[in-house]
Amino acid sequence: MRWIVLIVDDHPLVGQALELSIRAAYPHLDVGRVTSAAEAEQYAQLYGPRVKLVMLDLLLPDADGFSALLRLQQLLPDSAVAIVSSRADSHSISMARAFGVQGYLPKSAPVETLVNGVGALLRGEELFPPDAQADVAVIDFHKRVARLSAAQLRVLRALSDGKLNKEIAGEMNLTEGTVKQHVSAILKKLEVNNRSQAVLAAAPFMRTL
């Protein structure tokens, strides 16, 4: 079975350059490239067992921050994931490490550095900037929020925006009863007692989800 490196990046020049470079450097691997979180999910569902490594951009047209990462971790539990992003702030790097990715590579790095990183990641190494630390509180939050389905994550984001069940139902094309079921599941998985506690628990992280 040939392993796949999946590139998830909506920037055509960056994605294409990375794809061509990885193909040239690792002829024994297949390379997939998609430009959105939705396409990445579809690809994962089709080729999941073969996907060995995901190179994921944080800024996608249909996903904010780490929401795409959470979904891909659910679909590809045995795959390594590395963030390849123009963001280089300590918060994003700390979040990524706490969320269990294997590497954080800046887009500003030479393509050769990114390609060499692929080999290191496939060997099981971790690649992070020096002194990058994972926040213990974020690690705990990731364990809980990772239990949420894609729909439940969307509902949690809507709750954090102060939206009512009726508004959420309209936006997601669901019945209010279904939204209530999602809210109940969210409370249980986040180990909180009510909506307010759920919003408070997620508040420090919502800007990156």
Automatic annotation (TrEMBL):
Q: Which PROSITE patterns does the record match to this protein?
A: HTH_LUXR_1, HTH_LUXR_2, RESPONSE_REGULATORY
Query: For the Response regulatory domain, which residue ranges apply?
Result: 4-122
UniProtKB keywords: DNA-binding, Phosphoprotein
InterPro entries attached to this UniProt entry: CheY-like_superfamily, EvgA-like, NreC/VraR/RcsB-like_REC, Sig_transdc_resp-reg_C-effctor, Sig_transdc_resp-reg_receiver, Tscrpt_reg_LuxR_C
Can you tell which superkingdom this protein's organism belongs to? Bacteria
- Point out residues bearing the modification 4-aspartylphosphate: D57
One example of the protein's molecular function in GO is: DNA binding
Q: What GO terms describe the biological role, i.e. biological process, of this protein? A: phosphorelay signal transduction system; regulation of DNA-templated transcription
Pfam families reported in the protein's UniProt record: GerE (PF00196), Response_reg (PF00072)
Q: Which SUPFAM superfamilies match?
A: C-terminal effector domain of the bipartite response regulators (SSF46894), CheY-like (SSF52172)
Q: Which parts of the sequence belong to the HTH luxR-type domain?
A: 142-209
Q: What is the name listed in the Swiss-Prot or TrEMBL entry for this protein? A: Response regulator transcription factor
